[in-house]
Amino acid sequence: MKNMKLLLPLLLISFAIIGISDAGYISWYESQQIIPPCGTGFDCGTVLNSPWAHVGPIPLAYIGVFFYLTVLVLSTMHFLDLESGQISNSIRKILPKWFPIKSVTVFDFLWPLTLLGFLFSLYLVGIMAFVIGEWCKFCLVSAGTSSTLFLISTIYLLKFYGKSSAIVKWLTLKTMGFCYRNIAKPIFFLFDAETIHHVILNVGNFIGNIGIAKFKTSVFFSYKSPALVQQFDGVTFPNKVGLSAGFDYNGDLTQILPSVGFGWHTIGTVTLQPYEGNKKPRLGRFPNSKALLVNKGLKSIGTKAVIAKLEKLPLYIPTAISIASTNTSFDTKEDQLFDILQSFLLFENSDVRHKLYELNISCPNTFGGEPYTTPKRLGQLLSAVDKLKLSRPLYIKMPIDQSKKETIELLKVADKHNVQGVIFGNLTKDKTNPAVLPEDQKAWKKLKGNLSGKPTFDRSNAHIKTTKEMFKNRFTIVGTGGIFSGEDALTKLKLGADLIQVISGMIFQGPQLIGEINQTINDSRS
Ligand SMILES: Cc1cc2nc3c(=O)[nH]c(=O)nc-3n(C[C@H](O)[C@H](O)[C@H](O)COP(=O)(O)O)c2cc1C
Asked: 364-417 pLDDT, tens per residue?
């Protein structure tokens, strides 16, 4: 393997020299204005005198020399860089500030260049075959050389380079985002939000079972790097970006989300009894405020049905199960508590391969409000959950509209119990939230439901900061709410979040957002 890692760059250097010799030979004849001897069966004169043999006044042969020389220089730099990486480091230092990718290496420039050379050769061979109808021997040698260069660098890419060049990945993600925002999203937004949600769940579920579709999804969307892998609470996360609770509420997307690039995934919120959801319409959009209006009220097929579905499935990324009490009225507080405990017990005794639990105490769209957001009731709930001695870490999904003091009170309670993490946080129900544009505030006042997206960003950030300052590393902190870009994610991480989650950003910006966030996080380390 190590030999191959050395051999492939050496082959690149060798073929670049062959390319220089071939293109240099034609260039020399070109400069003397004579046609090189071509041999029988070829007609170099017709090809080299054709309009396709020049780009403006510049002969293609000269461009060929320049191309192979650049490949030679980059291949040599890459070969010399294999051990130390110092050349790549120096390149990173001299890159201009506007350059979008900070973690580039020499190879990131080399592979796209060989791709370009290969595509251009295909075009030229096509011109000779179908337009000119004659062949130039030296042009065919060049086409063979550039194709071989592309083949070698692609083998290197797949074997040794995390399967993608950073520049090509960046361009792919940007293209996906552009297509999503300008083609898919305008069509989606013509239809009812919940209908589109169901379409996406069905399509995701369907393609999650097709190997080639998963592979293609991964090529177009996911960004992988060994540097992104991290452990929290004994769980290994391939990256920090998770799908927040509520999108995959019945566990339909387990097989496709790893290909989209998610590092973890929350299913639910699951409730013990099935609930068909609040009265429709219960999902809306405020595009100008970059928010979704949610009034689903914990729609769920119920714990047993979710377990039956998940027990059959492999889970490729850490999966959390979000649990809350069924959205119904309970005769006593004990009944409500028992409803939650039963869901935990059913999952504990199941064969589902989940790695975490989320305890959702903050759904604002439910029958009895948010009973567990007072220190006393939260303490009672957590004492009961402690007794279950859960086999997986427990993260609490926190509300975000409460004051700093109230948040600290709740955290002090969580601190005394078997709680490993806190998630900030859930939807905002504050109709005076200044991040909601005035026209949307007016409309919201007449509607039922609470907001996700940008209106949750600042509040979530404030709670993350408080938690980190007050409790240091006591909790794994998950930053959720209003992440629409890699920079938004970095803001939460810098304030103290260990992991992050998204929903609304993915809907407004596109599913490539996950890859973009991961690339930004990876770049921020360099
Ligand atoms: C359609 C929808 C349904 C949601 N349902 C749940 C839920 O069942 N449980 C939960 O804990 N949070 C739920 N949430 C809240 C999200 O998990 C997340 O905390 C919130 O949307 C903020 O993140 P975002 O701005 O990235 O969307 C839901 C959000 C949306 C948009």
From this structure: 667 777 789 899 999 999 999 999 999 999 999 999 999 999 999 999 999 999
Residues 156 and 199 in one domain: no
Nearest CA to ligand 1 atom 5: 246
CB 418 within 8 A of CB 379: no
Question: Which pLDDT score, from 0 to 100, does residue 104 have?
Answer: 80
Backbone dihedral region for residue 411 (phi beyond 0: left; psi -120 to 50: alpha; all else: beta): alpha
Find the domain containing 30 and state its range: 2-161
Q: Cα separation of 75 and 331, whole Å? A: 74
Neighbouring residues of 509: CB distance < 8 A, sequence distance ≥ 6:
177, 180, 181, 484, 485
> What's the length of the chain?
526
The pLDDT of residue 163 is 54
Would you say the CB of residue 296 lies under 6 angstroms from ligand 1? yes
C-beta 503 within 6 A of ligand 1: yes
Per residue in 455-496, pLDDT (tens digit) is: 999 999 999 999 999 999 999 999 999 999 999 999 999 999
Per the CB < 8 A criterion, the answer to whether 478 and 464 are in contact is no
* Closest ligand 1 atom, residue 244 Cα: 17
* Beta-sheet pairing, 476-480 with 499-502: parallel
On whether both 154 and 201 belong to a single domain, the answer is no
Residue 170: inside a domain, yes or no?
A: no
Domain boundary among 143, 161, 179: 161
Whether residue 478 is found in the same domain as residue 437: yes
Where is 157: in which H helix or E strand? Answer: helix 137-160
What is the C-alpha separation between 458 and 23, in angstroms, rounded? 59
Calpha distance 290→312 (Å, rounded): 37
Yes or no: say if 244 and 273 are a contact pair by the CB < 8 Å rule.
no
The pLDDT value given to residue 164: 63
For residue 180, tell me if it sits in a domain. no
Half-sphere exposure of 109 (CA within 13 A, CB side): 20
Please, which pLDDT band fits residue 516 given cuts at 50, 70 and 90?
Answer: very high
Number of domains within the chain: 2
Residue whose CA is at the smallest distance from ligand 1 atom 15: 426
Mean pLDDT of the chain: 93
- What's the 113 CA to ligand 1 centre distance in angstroms? 43
| Cα(503) to centroid(ligand 1), Å | 7
Ligand 1 center–CA 403 separation, angstroms: 20
Pair 439, 296 in one domain = yes
Question: Residue 339's domain is classified under what CATH number?
Answer: 3.20.20.70
Report the atom number in ligand 1 closest to the C-alpha of 292.
Answer: 31
- Decide: residue 428, CB within 10 A, 0-12 exposed, 13-18 middle, 19+ buried: buried
* ipTM of model: 0.99
Residues contacting 34, CB < 8 A, separation 6+: none
Instruction: Give the span between the Cα atoms of 180 and 512, in whole angstroms.
Output: 9
